[in-house]
Specification:
mainly alpha; 7 helices; elongated
């Protein structure tokens, strides 16, 4: 419990600091999100080639690639979590907006802020514990159970980084919903109820 209280205090401090530099920080975060989304796409392409090569080697030459299954599994969190914040900035995550459609604009605005703040707290907790777990993987030099013994910490690091960046993106969205004139969106144009207007 003590750890969560300290984490909450750190989050509040980071939010205050981010609020002071929200506009330039949002532009910088946007560049990072695009770069990581491109990296995730490159890893996805590599994973597709890796799995395709394994199928070819297994069935055409009867020589499967060692560690192919574990290697592909370790790439999945990297693909997903590097693009997490970018997807949030595009309002691409699945959302349930049935109730929001019935609310007035003012109540909808407060509901969006409350939802984003709750999501920030959850994602920060997940980022913190993912980072702790990744640190343990690094210290133990953890590897997969079969040759060629891939390192496992990069997948954990991608999870922690993804949750951290989506938390920052959601906080910038909170600021934009609260005061759109003072805090620009720094997001691509998108439609729908989930678009921050």
């Amino acid at each position: 419990m003590h750890e969560l209280v300290v984490l909450a205090a750190v989050v509040v401090a980071v939010m205050a600091a981010t609020t002071a530099v929200a506009t330039p920080f949002g532009r910088y975060l946007r560049r990072v999100e695009i770069a990581l989304a491109m990296a995730a796409a490159a890893v996805a392409f590599f994973a597709m080639m890796f799995v395709g090569a394994e199928v070819l080697m297994r069935y055409a030459f009867n020589a499967p690639i060692p560690g192919h299954l574990e290697g592909a599994e370790l790439l999945v969190p990297i693909i997903v979590f590097l693009g997490l914040s970018y997807t949030q900035s595009m309002h691409g995550h699945v959302g349930m907006d049935l109730v929001l459609d019935w609310l007035s604009d003012r109540v909808r605005r407060y509901a969006m802020i409350a939802t984003l703040l709750a999501s920030i707290f959850i994602c920060v907790v997940l980022a913190w514990f993912s980072a702790r777990h990744t640190w343990q993987l690094w210290l133990y030099d953890d590897v997969t159970m079969s040759p060629p013994y891939f390192k496992t910490w990069p997948s954990g690091a991608a999870v922690a980084l993804g949750y951290l960046l989506i938390s920052l993106r959601m906080f910038l969205q909170v600021l934009h919903v609260y005061d759109p004139r003072r805090f620009p969106a720094n997001e691509p144009e998108s439609g729908g109820i989930h678009a921050v207007e």
